Automatic annotation (TrEMBL):
It holds the Pfam family Lactamase_B. Residues 22-207 form the Metallo-beta-lactamase domain. Transmembrane segments: none annotated. This is MBL fold metallo-hydrolase. It comes from the Archaea.
Amino acid sequence: MELAPGVHGLPLHVSMDDREATFNPTAVETPRGLLLIDVSLPDEVDVLEDALADEELALDDAWGILVTHQDLDHAGCLATVVDRTDAVVFAHEIEAPYLEGEKELVKSSEERPMAIEPTTVDFRLTGGETFATAAGPMEVVPTPGHSPGHVSAHFPDAELLVSADALNVVDGEFVGPRPEVTQDLGTARESVATLADRDVAETFCFHGGHVEAGTERIAEIAAER
């Protein structure tokens, strides 16, 4: 679905942990080609490619990938996509050592080991960087909490927020961080307050997809305790 001029939501229907799930990365048209915001699980490149084709886009046109954070559902097939496209990888500097294999993924444990194929982060972000896109400037917004260096993307001209996992849609309700999968809930809630300071009319969540809700509802979520 087109969220704003040249900004496409990509619903991916996948199997994870013996259940069906829908993930929602984003493809952004830029003067250089496609910029992907997140990818998907290992071995799910074909699903990503099909979702792009549904939007009349091509994976081979991707020149860059903004990885919002290290989780498998967001970065699991990153190495494969980079091998296929030679895309440049952007991620927050705190996330880079996890993506490059220097640190163990924060959600990995003896009971449930997790790993992704190490991939070089070409540009380490600190927040506030902007990308030129068909929908106007896209700002990288640090939203830590779900993971140490989680980021979201804001398109001020379109009043669109791509929240990754900082916000969610659960059973049709626009909600904040999910405690059961959030590394630092207090910090995650502070990040919601950061997002509430921006002009947002519509939000696209990696889990739950698109909602016609923004600043007012985000401020309500930030006030919840």
